Structure formats: C-alpha cells, structure tokens
Amino acid sequence: MTGKTEQTAVAEALGYEQARDELIEVVRRLEAGGTSLEESLALWERGEELAKVCRRWLDGARARLDAALAEEEQGEADDGEQQAVEH
User: What is the C-alpha to C-alpha distance for residues 86 and 61, in angstroms, rounded to an integer?
Assistant: First the structure.
C-alpha cells in the first residue's frame, strides 16, 4: 500500500469522536501557522480525509434516525388502522 492509501484506510477506521478530535487538532495547527508549505499541505489533506470520515458517520447516523422514525410512523399508522377496524 502507498502512504496515502494507508492514511485513508486508517482514517476510515476511526470512530466519529476520534476523527473529529483529530480534525480539531489539524485545524488548530493550521490556524497557528509556523508550518512549512509541505507540512501545511499534508495537514490540509489529512483534514479533508478526517472531514469525510466525520461526514460518513453523520450521514450514517442520519439514515439510522430516519429509518427509526419511519418505522415508528409506520407502527403508529398500523395501530391506527387496527383501531379503526376494531371499532
């Protein structure tokens, strides 16, 4: 594997909180300045990878919430239909 591919694989294996915390640190380092152009580019690339990981986790969480809400709504609709049939 190349270095970049390994970095991406490691980033994707992170949990949301780990990726978020590392992203915060990357942003802090970039904002502080004092890094070479090469270091800044590497930090920016890492930050992009971490942001994608966070976005995937958040999108997954949103999908799970949407599915749970749809299931709940379907259950309520089924309950309403059942009550209407019983009366």
Answer: 37
Contact 16, 58 (CB under 8 A): yes
Q: Identify the burial level of 20 via C-beta atoms within 10 angstroms of its C-beta, where 0-12 means exposed, 13-18 middle and 19 or more buried.
A: middle
The string of pLDDT tens digits covering residues 16-27 is 999 999 999 999
3-13 and 37-86 helices, crossing angle to 10°: 40
User: How far apart are the C-alpha atoms of 24 and 27, rounded to whole Å?
Assistant: 5
pTM above 0.90, yes or no: no
| Residue 12: other Cβ atoms inside 10 A | 12
Closest CA to 47 of 63, 31, 68: 31
